[in-house]
Please model this.
Amino acid sequence: MSKNDPPNIVYHYTSPQGAFDILRNKTLWFTDCQYLNDMSEFVYILEPIEEAYTKLTQERGENASDIDRFLKSFFSSPYEGLDFEGFMKHKKMRRGFPPRFRYYVLCSSINDDSASMWNYYVRNGSYRGYNLGLRRAIIIDWFHQLNNDKIKLVEGRVIYDRKKQVDKAYQKLKELLACYDNKMVGLGGNADDSLVIDDFQDGLSEYIHEQKLFSKNPAFASEQEHRFVLKVHNDYSNGISGLQTQYRVGESGIITPYIEWNFGDLKAQLLNQITLSPMIESELAHESFKRFLANDVYQSIEIKPSTIKLRY
Model:
């Protein structure tokens, strides 16, 4: 497999309690992206999109002076009414709307023994974490078979390369603006163009809110993240067996929404291995996992210690 091929196995890093709950309850959690730990990463995509939009606007011979203000409006209040003051080309912008979707994230890495990822689980100078090897195809197939227009799974590698981020945004913006231009020509000069502007905003908003989850600062490239994102329509109401909207109190004390996926009978196919973080008691941790797993059909899961050496 080349470095650009989709991985067969991805690794979900979690706390000891998180690993225990996943294995015991046969569930995985997709957390509402508004409530993830580092919210700053979700505004990172603004800069690559602004660079791409400026380039495209200049190619089209249009005024690029309002781009920064225009794009920032998509980030300022993502789920409340958006108030746009002007559309950069036609100086028309209707009063905004909330995005149609919410995005719930399950994070993983293609690296089963990443020092960068283990560092999130250091407590009092000691590592306290595990990762669970998940067969990617099992997750994709389960959600594909839903065939439900209220929930869609989007998955893929996080992009850390700035040029790739800009190029991808450029192509999408070019596509959206071409569609906008064609619709405007079809309307003629005298018709109401508010619906055309709405469609453009919808497409751009959806692209921004989705891609902000798959683009990160190059400084984080060592994490090698692969993400699973549930794109959930705002009017979804727990109508799918095995998927339930739940709430928990997060580390910050804020009540955090998440979608709980009960993978149930898929456990033997889904779970490939458990990797132990660097720890002094690795042999004891290995033994305790074997005893715990022996009570279920998890016996086929490989248990691996980290190869990273502890430093004192």
Summary: The chain is about 35% helix and 25% strand.
